[in-house]
Amino acid sequence: xxxxxxxxxxxxxxxxxxxxxGLAATTVGNAVATAVEQDRIEPYGQKVMVDGHxxxxxxxxxxxxxxxxxxxxxxxxxxxxxxxxxxDLAKDHRVIVxxxxxxxxSDGTDRARTTDNIVTETHDALQQLGIxxxxxxxxxxAGIYGIQFANRYPDEVRAFVGIDSSVPGQPGSDTxxxxxxxxxxxxxxxxxxxxxxxxxxYDDAVYPAQTQEQIALLTNRNTLSPTYLNAMSxxxxxxxxxxxxxxxxxxxxxxxxxxNNPTYPTWLGLHEEQAAAVDDGTxxxxxxxxxxxxxxxxxxxxxxxxxxxxxxxxxx
Length: 316
Known about the structure:
Keywords: Hydrolase, Signal. InterPro entries: AB_hydrolase_1, AB_hydrolase_fold, AB_hydrolase_sf. GO terms for molecular function: hydrolase activity. One of its GO terms (cellular component) is membrane. The protein is an alpha/beta fold. It has one domain (about 45-310): Alpha/Beta hydrolase fold, catalytic domain (Rossmann fold). The protein has helices at about 5-40, 80, 85-90, 115-130, 140-150, 180-185, 190-200, 210-220, 225-235, 235-240, 265-275, 290-295, 295-310; strands spanning about 45-50, 55-60, 65-70, 95-100, 135-140, 155-165, 255-260, 280-285. The chain is globular and about 50 Å long. It starts with a helix and ends in a 5-residue tail after the last helix. Residues about 5-30 have low confidence and may be disordered.
């Protein structure tokens, strides 16, 4: 074998060996850290049994009107994520945050993460708690779940409030994601490694250090779990099933939307079309990013209260 070729092979072998050792280290480190971190996760909310599994639900406040909050896809801890909204809304409402299976402190599940199953499970949890008359407020993918929710339970849902909520036919909704690759990255500990450099992404001014620590722990536990991966694999199918669906015409809509979405220039227009399709639809553009309730919770709450007083007098 010629020396240059031999040197290349030796170099490649060395690189592969280093990568293999590195992946072995991150894999073992991830398994150990996951076991240790489980004991550091602080409980919150209450558990209800749904389909043989425990679903976590947080109820805050004792106002005369109920608001049910549904999270966006992959939110590690919906209860902690929605805290800025809940703290204010609970001053004059009863606020219920539902953590679907695979989210927050809820169990995982083998049941397919279809819109139909997710809506059914969430509704079962609310029924067990005696919650049957509420404003449905949801972030991101909850816009798709909300459409089915409102159509299936029209006697319960009084209005829908979207926080940069998803809409049927939105750009990119038919994209197939590399679920297997993501699952491998999780097992190899690469997701944890990346997260350690990236941080939680939550603003220090809004989320205290202790809250951020808990979010980080739940992110490591829940992100790309089997339940999460199943939901990811069904995202495009759920969007396809939502094509042609809409909110009931007599359901009041209030949609908070990112005003300028450079990735999807039609984003605001799609929500304006959605609002125009009902008898009473309002769109509030906000200069911000997708998780509007992180940095703009006060505006969302203030505008919601003004809208509620005008559109829903019985809520006073």
